[in-house]
Specification:
With 744 residues, the chain is α+β, with helices and mostly antiparallel strands. Among the domains are: 5-90, Immunoglobulins (Immunoglobulin-like), CATH 2.60.40.10; 97-209, Sandwich (Immunoglobulin-like); 625-730, Immunoglobulin-like. The protein is 21% helix and 24% strand. An eight-stranded parallel β-barrel has the order 17-20-23-26-27-28-29-30, surrounded by four helices. A five-stranded antiparallel sheet has the order 31-32-33-39-36. A hairpin with a 4-residue loop joins β24 and β25 (380-381). The longest helix is centred in the C-terminal third of the chain and has 19 residues, at 600-618. It is elongated. The termini are far apart.
Length: 744
C-alpha cells in the first residue's frame, strides 16, 4: 500500500477533507488503481466500462473497509462501476472557483443554482450534486436513504478554502431523503437539514428531499408585463392576508362538519395547494381584493409558529404539497388578475437542532456572541448580516421566491428587530456598533442591498417592511438615503385606530386625535394600513370582539371602521376572517368559521368589504394620488364634540373627489353641514349603515350642495349622518391641474 497512513486514518474515519485524492481512479507507476471505501464489506467487484479491461475483485488493504483494484493494462483513467454502481469519486467538481468567489464576496444572487442538492447529468451519468457551506467543519457527509443512512459512503470534498464542500453522487433518484452529517472541529457529528433544500419531509420528520429547482409551467406573461408597467404606489391595493392552513380544512372522515362544532370551524386535515387553489382564488376574486399575502410558506417545523420559525429558506412547506403546486397556485392567482405577496422572515431563525443554529458546530449564520446572535425575547437566533455568505444566502432566498415562483413581492417580517441592536434587550444584553450607537449597520446595508436587487432583477415587484419605529426613510429609495422598501406597514395608525374604535363611543370625543393624528405623518412614508393576524391572536380577540356596545352596535362599529380605513390614505390589508366579523380569534388549528356567511350580521360585513374593494378599484380618487399630500384634504379634523371626522380624496388631476364622513357615535346627526369644493348634486357612493350591509338603512337625505361656504370650502351640503357609520359621497367634476408625483 503506497498511501500515507494519516490519509488512510482520515478515510476510515470518513473525515478526509479531499477524499477524491485517495478514492476513485488514479494513475500510478504501474497503471491505474481504483480505491473505494466500503465499511462492513468483505468483497468488492470493479467492472471497467472498456471491454478491453478485465473486471477484478478488489483487494482489501485495510480491515476497516478500504479496498483497491489495480489495472496494470490501463494507460489512462477509465470509467467503471463498483458492484454495478457508479463511483462518486470519479467525477470533477460541479461548481467552480467563480461560484465560490462570488459567494464568499456576497454577490452570487443565484446561489440556489449551485449550493444544495441538484439533479444533474455529468458525462452522460445522471445523479445529484450536493454542495454546502460549512467553514469550520472537519468533514461533511451525505446521510440518506440511498446509502442506508451511512454517511461514510459519501464524504464531501472541501473545494473552497473558505468552506464550500461538494460531491456528485450518481444514480440518486428524485424523492430520496437526505441529511447533511457535519462533523465539527471537535469531532462531533450533527445531522442537519440542507439550508438549500427545495423540498423537505412533512413534520415531524426533518430531512431534505431530492427535488431540484421547482419547474412548473407558468402562463402569466401578460400579468408580469402589466406588473412591470405599473407603479404600485399609484394603483389600487387591497391585500387579503392568509394563513393557508387556517383558511379552510377538510373534515376528518369520521368527523363532523362545522355546524356540529362549538363556535363553528373544524379541525380536519390541511387542504393541499391544489385544493386551496380551488377555494381561495375564486373567493379572493369574488371579494375584490387586488392581492393576497401568504403568511410564511417557507418550510418550518412547528405549526404553531405560523411559519415564522423558518428552517427551509428555499423550500415550500410540504404540509400542502409540492413546490410545483405552490407555483401553480401563484399562477392561478395571476390568471385572475390578483397579485401574490409572500411573508418572508430574515429577522431571525429557530434553535431547532436540525436547522441553521451552530450549523457546523460554529456560528455560521448567527453571531457567536449571544448578545449579538440571539433574541432573548423570542428564544431565536439573529442572522450575522455582516458576513458576506450570510448576506448572500438571504439575498438568494428572496430572489428565489420572486424569480422561481413569480411572487409579486415580499413582506419582510420584524424589520425593527433587524435595525436595532438593542431590540427587545436590556442593558448588558447587546453590543453597540462601531460608533457607539444601537443601529445595526450591517442589517441596514443588507436591507438596502435586498431592495436594490429586487428593483433591478424583478421589475414591478414590491418589498414591504413590517417596521414599527420612527426609523426615517424606510420607503425612500436608497439613492435618496432611504432603506429602499416599496411600502411600510403603518403600525401607529393601526394601534390608534383600534384603540379608538375599541372604546365606548361615550368617551371618543376625548380621544379624537386617535383618528386624526395619523394624517400628520401619512406621507412621511409610503404606507400600508394593516389589520393583520397580529391583531387577532394571543388573547387579543377578534376584530368584532374588540368592538363595544350591544350586538347591533358592535357590527355597526366594525363597518364604520372598515369604511374609514378604506377612505384613509394608504394601501389596505385585512387578515382572513376579519371580513366575516369572526367572533373567535385566529387559531392555526382550525378553519375559519365559514358558517358565518349564513348569519345576516356577519354576511353584511362581508358584503361591505366586497363593496369597499369594488368601490376603491373603480375610484382613482382613493389611490391615484395616494402617496401625495395634494391628493388629500381635511374638511374637518376638529369636531371632537360630535365625534365626526370628514375628509376629501382627489384623483391625480384633482378633477374628481370623494367626500368621506365618519360618525363615530350611536347618535344620528340630522342636517349635519359639510363643506365641499363645489356646489351641485352629490351622490352617495357608499354608506356602511346600508340595509345590504346589515345597517339601519336610515339614508342620508337630500345631497345638493349650495354656495354656502363652510369648513374653509366655497360650498357645503347638509347630510343626515347615520349612527356609527362612514359615508362616501361623489361630487361634481372639477377643473384643476394634476398633482405632480413625488420621488419616494
Amino acid at each position: 500500500m503506497d498511501l500515507d497512513p494519516r490519509d488512510v486514518e482520515r478515510i476510515l474515519a470518513a473525515e478526509h477533507a479531499d477524499p477524491h485524492t485517495i478514492l476513485g481512479a488514479h494513475l500510478v507507476a504501474d497503471g491505474v488503481v481504483v480505491r473505494m471505501f466500503r465499511p462492513g464489506r468483505l468483497s468488492v467487484h470493479v467492472e471497467p466500462d472498456d471491454p478491453a479491461l478485465p473486471a477484478r475483485e478488489a483487494v482489501r488493504i485495510h480491515e476497516g473497509g478500504l479496498f483497491e483494484a489495480r489495472f496494470p493494462e490501463a494507460k489512462a483513467i477509465f470509467r467503471y462501476r463498483i458492484d454495478g454502481e457508479r463511483d462518486p469519486y470519479a467525477f470533477l467538481p460541479t461548481l467552480g472557483p467563480l461560484d465560490a468567489h462570488l459567494f464568499h464576496e456576497g454577490n452570487h444572487l443565484r446561489l440556489y443554482e449551485v449550493l444544495g442538492a441538484h439533479p444533474r447529468t455529468i458525462d452522460g451519468v445522471a445523479g445529484v450534486s450536493f454542495a454546502v457551506f460549512a467553514p469550520e467543519a472537519r468533514a461533511v457527509r451525505v446521510s440518506a436513504d440511498f446509502n442506508l443512512w451511512d454517511g461514510r459512503r459519501h464524504t464531501l470534498r472541501r473545494i473552497s478554502p473558505h468552506g464550500i464542500w461538494e460531491l456528485f453522487v450518481p444514480d440518486v433518484p428524485l424523492g430520496s431523503v437526505y441529511k447533511l452529517e457535519i462533523v465539527d472541529a471537535r469531532g462531533r457529528a450533527h445531522l442537519k437539514l440542507d439550508p438549500f433544500a427545495f423540498q423537505c419531509e412533512v413534520r415531524p420528520h426533518n430531512g431534505g428531499v431530492v427535488h431540484g429547482l421547482p419547474r412548473a409551467e407558468f402562463h402569466d406573461e401578460a400579468w408580469l408585463e402589466r406588473r412591470k408597467a405599473t407603479d404600485p404606489r399609484r394603483a389600487p391595493m387591497s391585500i387579503y392576508e392568509v394563513h393557508l392552513g387556517g383558511f379552510a380544512r377538510v373534515p376528518h372522515e369520521r368527523g363532523v362538519g362545522a355546524q356540529n362544532l362549538p363556535g363553528g370551524g373544524h379541525t380536519g386535515r390541511f387542504l393541499t395547494y391544489r385544493e386551496i387553489e380551488e377555494k381561495l382564488v375564486p373567493y379572493v376574486k369574488h371579494m375584490g381584493f387586488t392581492h393576497v399575502e401568504l403568511m410564511p410558506v417557507t418550510e418550518y417545523p412547528y405549526d404553531g409558529s405560523w411559519g415564522y420559525q423558518v428552517t427551509g429558506y428555499f423550500a415550500a412547506t410540504s404540509r400542502y404539497g409540492s413546490p410545483e403546486d405552490l407555483q401553480r397556485l401563484v399562477d392561478a392567482f395571476h390568471r385572475e388578475g390578483i397579485g401574490v405577496l409572500l411573508d418572508w422572515v430574515p429577522a431571525h431563525f429557530p434553535r431547532d437542532a436540525h436547522g441553521l443554529r451552530r450549523f457546523d458546530g460554529s456560528a455560521v449564520y448567527e453571531h457567536l456572541d449571544p448578545r449579538q446572535g440571539e433574541h432573548p425575547e423570542w428564544g431565536t437566533m439573529v442572522f450575522n448580516y455582516g458576513r458576506p455568505e450570510v448576506k448572500n444566502f438571504l439575498l438568494a432566498s428572496a430572489l428565489f421566491w420572486l424569480e422561481r415562483f413569480h411572487f409579486d413581492g415580499l413582506r419582510v417580517d420584524a424589520v425593527a428587530s433587524m435595525l436595532y441592536l438593542d431590540y427587545g434587550k436590556s442593558h448588558g444584553q447587546w453590543v453597540a456598533n462601531r460608533y457607539g450607537g444601537h443601529e445595526n449597520l450591517a442589517a441596514v446595508d443588507f436591507l438596502r442591498a435586498l431592495n436594490e436587487a429586487v428593483d433591478e432583477r424583478c421589475p414591478g415587484a414590491m418589498v414591504i417592511a413590517e417596521e414599527s419605529t420612527a426609523w426615517p426613510g424606510v420607503s425612500r429609495k436608497t439613492h435618496l438615503g432611504g432603506l429602499g422598501f416599496s411600502f411600510k406597514w403603518n403600525m401607529g395608525w393601526m394601534h390608534d385606530t383600534l384603540q379608538y374604535f375599541s372604546m365606548d363611543p361615550l368617551f371618543r370625543s376625548h380621544h379624537h386625535g386617535k383618528i386624526t393624528f395619523g394624517l400628520m405623518y401619512a406621507w412621511s412614508e409610503t404606507f400600508v394600513l394593516p389589520l393583520s393576524h397580529d391583531e387577532v391572536v394571543h388573547m387579543k380577540g377578534s376584530m368584532i370582539g374588540k368592538m363595544p356596545g350591544d350586538p347591533y352596535q358592535r357590527f355597526a362599529n366594525l363597518r364604520a371602521l372598515y369604511g374609514w380605513m378604506w377612505a384613509h390614505p394608504g394601501k389596505k390589508l385585512l387578515f382572513m376572517g376579519s371580513e366575516l366579523a369572526q367572533e373567535r380569534e385566529f387559531s392555526e388549528a382550525r378553519s375559519l368559521d365559514w358558517h358565518l356567511e349564513h348569519e345576516p350580521a356577519h354576511a353584511g360585513v362581508q358584503a361591505l368589504v366586497r363593496a369597499l374593494n369594488e368601490a376603491c378599484a373603480a375610484r382613482p380618487e382613493l389611490w391615484e394620488a395616494d402617496v401625495d399630500p395634494a391628493g388629500f384634504q381635511w374638511i374637518d379634523a376638529n369636531d371632537h364634540g360630535n365625534s365626526v371626522a370628514s375628509i376629501l380624496r382627489f384623483d391625480r388631476r384633482r378633477s374628481r373627489y370623494l367626500v368621506c364622513v365618519l360618525n363615530a357615535t350611536p347618535i344620528a346627526r340630522r342636517g349635519y353641514r359639510v363643506g365641499v369644493p363645489v356646489a351641485g348634486d352629490h351622490r352617495v357612493v357608499l354608506d356602511t349603515d346600508d340595509h345590504r350591509f346589515g345597517g339601519s338603512g336610515q339614508g342620508c337625505g337630500s345631497l345638493v350642495a349650495d354656495s354656502i361656504a363652510h369648513h374653509g370650502q366655497p360650498a357645503s351640503l347638509t347630510i343626515d349622518l347615520p349612527p356609527l357609520a362612514t359615508v362616501w359621497l361623489e361630487g361634481p367634476q372639477l377643473d384643476a391641474a394634476p398633482v405632480e408625483p413625488t420621488d419616494a
